[in-house]
Amino acid sequence: MLEVRLLQGSLLKKVVEAMGELVVDANLDCSSTGVSLQAMDSSHVALVALMLRSEGFDHFRCDRSVSMGMNLANVSKLLRCSAPDDIVTLRADDDADTLTFMFESPKQDKISDFEMKLMDIQSEHLRIPEAEYQSIVRMPSQEFARICKDLSSIGDTVVISVTKEGVKFSTRGDIGNANIVCRQNTSVDKPEESTIIEMTEPVSLTFALRYMNSFTKATPLSNTVTISMSSDLPVVVEYKIAEMGYLRFYLAPKIEDEEDQS
Amino acid sequence: MLEVRLLQGSLLKKVVEAMGELVVDANLDCSSTGVSLQAMDSSHVALVALMLRSEGFDHFRCDRSVSMGMNLANVSKLLRCSAPDDIVTLRADDDADTLTFMFESPKQDKISDFEMKLMDIQSEHLRIPEAEYQSIVRMPSQEFARICKDLSSIGDTVVISVTKEGVKFSTRGDIGNANIVCRQNTSVDKPEESTIIEMTEPVSLTFALRYMNSFTKATPLSNTVTISMSSDLPVVVEYKIAEMGYLRFYLAPKIEDEEDQS
Amino acid sequence: MLEVRLLQGSLLKKVVEAMGELVVDANLDCSSTGVSLQAMDSSHVALVALMLRSEGFDHFRCDRSVSMGMNLANVSKLLRCSAPDDIVTLRADDDADTLTFMFESPKQDKISDFEMKLMDIQSEHLRIPEAEYQSIVRMPSQEFARICKDLSSIGDTVVISVTKEGVKFSTRGDIGNANIVCRQNTSVDKPEESTIIEMTEPVSLTFALRYMNSFTKATPLSNTVTISMSSDLPVVVEYKIAEMGYLRFYLAPKIEDEEDQS
């Protein structure tokens, strides 16, 4: 039997909505260590990886590992039926073909349960090796979202260049060129507003803005975002989820030639 | 001559917008007792009944009973030209083919008058007999609106079941089933947040969610809604209007067979 | 070289958005006295005139007069990439075919520059003679915007009639007639809320509401609007821009016959 309970149920809604633009169907993998999900986007370009550790739940019981296939748009529909302060419980019997979402109002005067049919989804689980990154930028997640949105009004790709002084986001399009520089800046009083750069080597990589904009749907999950880059690896855009885990997006850089053609 | 005046003019706007999704054209009936309106929705399934008693107006003069045909979308357009704190006056001469709406700002520095053409509308006035209902639920109107909206994302019909413990709203659809239970709950400090059940017999009836959602357009009129049900009668969904009257919606339950087919 | 700097950069965004509904492409004329722009709307009915005097800028350098052609939608796109409290600098080299917009956050931790390509635009500069107007109405800009919007839901044209007592806005349409009267009203405590009428002669002129509604896109620029009318001249609808200048819209009145036909 699976039964997991989260007092801060609105977190689940944010997690599912953060993935919804990229992922249509996916398996939710539950085991004694926690709940995780891994999926490629529909065009097989970006990878999404979610981890919610069991310790982060207010109650966590998972008798045996199970993989539950679901359509994320449907999950989103159900979770949108919960109020922001509802307690959320997910429950499934062993070998069941349904997953039940229960929402309880804090005063227990309204209790909703939604029984959702599960699906069989073929998926391969990629092993993502831990890597050392040449440049790691931690910055306010809203600032990153704003920059991706602003540059999209001008061009299709963004060049992210990291030096010790700061991180530069550049694009060009029919109407002109744009450069946005965020300087390293370690505000001590509001650490979530600081931009911090850790680097062993400067990096400059090009990405499709369309994907970056999809990643920023995770902005409500965390005040900060971490962007890890190496010249020969996919970028990792990571949003930490409270004390529980993370939502990570992986995207391969565009080869320079491709960018020039676009 | 007809001349009625309402200091809290925004109430009229709410009343007209509450009916606008169901009723296209209707006769506004004015007599010395007040202003009333009765209309079927365009598919002749639901009935809307409005009553605004003369005592509720700040000034009320109606020399002889008159029935004025109007298009509610046009009335809504005019009322949307009033500010939230405007004083609203309706005025019509005897046998006039127009109705004048006057809006006065509280400081009297802006005065608008709109003369609207009246229409001839054939309508039969149904006599709605007073009835004893087996179950009457009074609950927060926003909660009811939220439940109807949430269930609509899953199914087309709602089963409303009342027992002494509470009221249950259920639906099913392609993605699964849903049950939302509101427990009887008599918060003394905030009576408008309580859910109160009066029943002589448990009832369980099925309704089209589409209509229920249209009824909830009346939510801004009142903090609470009253749902009166008997197994052999149309449900009455009633929104009280301040000290003046009510807006009631009547809808026949679906026969079980129909629901199974859907 | 041209280099102008404005601490209150959001003002430029408002100016460009105020003109954007009427003007597609236009020349921005810069000289030592300031920045100005004059353009007809695409149907050559209304004229827009902008003036931002050099004293109003926090830094102003314009070595020689220059006329820079630009697409206002593109300028709007770029300015939307600035934050409300950004400092905005425009810079162009002599004979350059680009104009650079630089946005600096107040803490200087984010610096964006956008290089926009300029266009060649043929335009004739109209000389607008200074005139004496028979009636000048100064009123709250939001009130004027609200009235134009409200009347548009009923008719296509507005008759603006000024007398010593006040200004009346009238329209008629299929559903009926409307008259909105704003009385002269000189609230001393909040001068921006007053309606002030200066007149040598009463005036009553008819205008297309479509244009009036476009002019009111300038409402965010100023708390008040000034409407100057004479029976044989285009109306001038003017929004003052802080201590810097103005945005003026000119529109010829409709001939009575035309109005009757509509």
SS-based structural class of chain A? Answer: alpha+beta
Distance between the termini of chain A: 51 Å
Low-confidence stretches of chain A: 258-262
Strand order of the largest sheet of chain A: 6-2-3-4-18-17-16-10-14
What proportion strand of chain A? 35-45%
The radius of gyration of chain A is 20 Å
- Count of DSSP H/I helices of chain A: 5
Sheet with most strands of chain A: 9 strands, antiparallel
Oligomer: homotrimer
Q: Which protein chains are joined by the largest interface, and how many residues does each one contribute? A: A-B, 18 and 15 residues
Q: State the shape of chain A.
A: elongated
Mean pLDDT across the residues of chain A is: 93
Task: Output the helix-strand order of chain A.
Answer: EHEEEEEHEEEEHEEEEEHEEEH
Helix percent of chain A reads: 10-25%
Number of strands of chain A: 18
Task: Give a written overview of the molecule.
3 copies of one chain form a homotrimer. With 262 residues, chain A is an alpha+beta fold. A 9-stranded antiparallel β-sheet of chain A has the order 6-2-3-4-18-17-16-10-14. A 5-stranded antiparallel β-sheet of chain A has the order 5-1-7-8-9, covered by helices on one side. The first copy, chain A, is elongated. The N and C termini of chain A lie far apart (51 Å). The C terminus of chain A is likely disordered. Chains in contact: A-B, A-C, B-C. Chains A and B meet through α2 and β9 of A and β13 of B. β9 of chain B pairs antiparallel with β13 of chain C.
